[in-house]
Amino acid sequence: MTKSEALKLLKCNVTELAEKLGITSQAISQWPEKKIPLAREYQIRDLAKGQKPLNVTSSVA
């Protein structure tokens, strides 16, 4: 999943996505555009389904 696809899926901007994931927008800005971290992709897919996202360790941006 790309960063743009994640934002489109949740219909939000970077700041809102950061709040939903409990991370900073600066962390999201470090994600590659072409492929976001897999753990974050799972969280975003959970959010899109209306589910609580899995907990991810702080070592994943």
From TrEMBL:
SUPFAM superfamilies (alphabetical): lambda repressor-like DNA-binding domains
Record GO terms (molecular function): DNA binding
One Pfam family recorded for the sequence: P22_Cro
Protein known as: Cro/Cl family transcriptional regulator
The species this protein was found in: Candidatus Avacidaminococcus intestinavium
Taxon lineage: Bacteria, Bacillati, Bacillota, Negativicutes, Acidaminococcales
